[in-house]
């Protein structure tokens, strides 16, 4: 189905200690923190486009570009609390994946089996694509982390015809020896399913997958992000995944299975719910989402 291609604004078990920490934070920050997803490595699209609303944050709105250009590779980063740290940001999907369905449907090895190279992602009912949302939030997140001195790499920046495939996305973080990797997404679930959740890697060993060394550190990273996301965005943890903790552990995502460095996925909200879509299409909320993630990553990296 059609997407809005305008440039956007630039089930499982959970660790008990992590869940308890987030639950305590919810009690002190957001009243009524809530609490099954069909989230995969990516979501297919079956959007029913309707007329876009104004950019005030109503469902279907397209936000206005506000982000600044990234520093050039030769421009020194500012010194800050994250100097010496490397963060890889993985914007979920690619806006042009839908033009390369044959390529993205090719199966790749995820260690415990095989899965599609990538998918198109979901969209709002008005046609605002998840892939556009993830790029915009990733740009904002990169800027916030670079301002603190971090070296930040993106797995892609709308600079390739499709992909990268999920195994390559994992490999980029591994080869960078990243201190943290965050894959930015938005979910495509039923109306009434609301809120964010952070997906953590399960203990997986098989084929080329072995997460034994990153399960604990990834859980710490995910809990930090979830806590700061609540505080900064005002969004409650998912009411349909994670039992109200905002945390979900999965063993079927190649991007996590193949990672050798701490990594999580952040599903920022449900694009198919009108109330969540109003947030996901609002430029000011994009900035809050980026800041919540940046603050959580920084807290994790500072220890």
Layout of helices and strands:
Blueprint: H1 16-29, E1 86-91, H2 101-104, E2 107-109, E3 114-116, H3 130-147, E4 151-154, H4 166-175, E5 180-187, E6 197-201, E7 205-206, E8 209-210, H5 215-233, E9 247-250, H6 254-257, E10 263-270, H7 274-280, H8 283-302
Helix pairs in contact: 1-5, 3-8, 5-8
Give descriptors for this structure.
303 residues; N-acetylmuramoyl_amidase_3; 32% helix; N-acetylmuramoyl-L-alanine amidase; 8 helices; N-acetylmuramoyl-L-alanine amidase activity; 6-stranded mixed β-sheet; MurNAc-LAA_cat; alpha/beta; signal; Aminopeptidase
Give the distance, in angstroms, between the N- and C-terminal Cα atoms. 44 Å
Text of the CATH class: Alpha Beta
Quantity of strands, as a count: 10
Average of the residue pLDDT scores: 83
User: Given the C-alpha coordinates, what overall shape results?
Assistant: globular
Q: In terms of structural class, how would the helical and strand content be classed?
A: alpha/beta
| Percent range of helical residues | 25-40%
β-strand amount = 5-15%
Low-confidence stretches: 1-21, 23-40, 44-69
What are the secondary-structure elements, in order, as H or E?
Answer: HEHEEHEHEEEEHEHEHH
What count of domains describes the coordinates? 1
Largest sheet: 6 strands, mixed
Give the full name of the CATH homologous superfamily: Zn-dependent exopeptidases
CATH architecture: 3-Layer(aba) Sandwich
- Helical stretch count? 8
CATH level 3 topology:
Aminopeptidase
Q: Within the largest sheet, what's the order of strands?
A: 4-1-5-10-6-9
GO molecular function: N-acetylmuramoyl-L-alanine amidase activity
Organism: Streptomyces arboris
Protein name: N-acetylmuramoyl-L-alanine amidase
Keywords: Hydrolase, Signal
